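Hi there,

I know you've been waiting on this one. I reran it after we fixed the sequence typo, so this is the corrected version. Both the input and the resulting structure follow.
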Amino acid sequence: MGTSVELRRITMTPAARRALAAAGRLFYDRGIHAVGVDLIAAEAGVTKKTLYDRFGSKEQIVVEYLADRDERWRAFLAERLDAAPPAPRARILAVFDASRAWMSDNGSKGCSMVNAHAEISDPAHPAHTVITGQKQWMLDLFTRLARDVEGLGPDAADRLGRTLMLLHEGALVAHGLKVFPDPVAHARDEAEALLDVETKR
């Protein structure tokens, strides 16, 4: 197994954007390994040569797909955090509300990063940095929000951040598996109950 590699991105042309949109739909619906470059080219209405000219490899298409999805999620979440009341509790719960809305519109099969990691576990793969980076970013976000909760010391806040992350990520997996209805709402309720306990200690 290799080590994490530096993330490289490409400049998007109109043809590359069409190809990325097609690849994103196919990768998410069918899985990364199941989708070949020929199918992406056909769905995008471009030649395979155009794909390789723009992206260089299928691996780079995967990088762009995951990075684009991550960027869109972060922007989506930022809007909802900006609109949330300033209290730390409200901002923490706003993350779960945002995930619930995102999953409703963009996530019928669960989290694209978790799904991709099931197929790409080698740190030497260029997309691995995107996957793990997105999850580290979510942990950092929950930890920052937890540190704003009044009365929590640094260790308790870090523990709360990790627990919130676990609730959130477990809900995304359960949503994709469709094990029971509305797992993100359930995780939100559990996060709210956890915050009640932590603030009463």
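Quick highlight: Residues 58-83 form the longest helix (26 residues).

Best,
R. S.
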